[in-house]
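Researcher: We're teaching a course module on how sequence relates to structure. For the next exercise, students receive a sequence and then see the predicted structure as tokens, so they can try to spot secondary structure elements on their own. Here is the exercise chain.
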Amino acid sequence: MKIKIILDSSSGLNKIEAEKLGWELMPLRTEINDISYENGVNMDTYEFAKIWKSNKKVDARTSCTPPGDITKMVDKYIENYDKIIIYPISKELSSQYSLLYNLYKDNEKVYIVPSRKISFLMVKDLLILEEELKNGKSFTEAIKVFDEPHERLILIPEFNDALVKGGRLSKAAAVIAKLLKIVPIIKVENGFLEKYGIGRVFRKTLTKTLKEIYEKEYKDDQNEMNDYHLIIMDAANDNISEIAKELKESIGFKNAYNWILSTDISVHTGIGAIAFAIIKVPNVIKEKFISLFKKY
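Model: And here is the predicted structure for the students to work with:
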């Protein structure tokens, strides 16, 4: 079976990186001061950070891939492939899935992943899918990987301006949070962004939260700790090198692996945000998967 994989820019890959894996990138859009950009093509989180630092009141919002662009992309492959798999941002965070599903619900050649994942978790799924198909699994069996529950991501914004703009935090609450140095802790689980807790002082909250999760959920599993990896995602944080070192040392890990949060996510979490997860990577994809990250 000849399969073409298309994933959207919420994965954190850019167009060139996706193509190196033999995939195609479907860019979501970011509109900044009435100018529309294609995420992963002519806009990324580092570029957005430059714009934001020059004007922290910048008007930025995200939107789905235009239907015309979607059909044009799919039409390139529809004749020469048995199946086209499109993996969008979590359907709980965007209407991208609904848009894709409605476009292709009657086309048996196109499979839209009912996504509940973001970032590197999407890439991990697709690498596993490719391996399982290569090893003889049927398409129906292989796509069950998309239904597997994912590791919980913990996300901590460095600044609250994006949360206020997005309506997730009131201006009054933001003022109080700033005065008291309160830091919101958000979990990404089952596709949703939900409150996990609060902390005091950004850097201290990062290490304290990671250490608490590690000691509660992973510390007793020492026999398998070599199979686990600390993944740190950032929205162009200026201190990522120092933060990665602090986090890995707080739980005694030798390495930390860094992944950039996509513009689609960073616009809503704010520049400087950090997310992390401790994940187990199957041996069959470990080398290829880890090679995609920056190691600290």
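Model: If you want an answer key for the exercise: The chain is about 35% helix and 25% strand. The longest helix spans residues 202-217.
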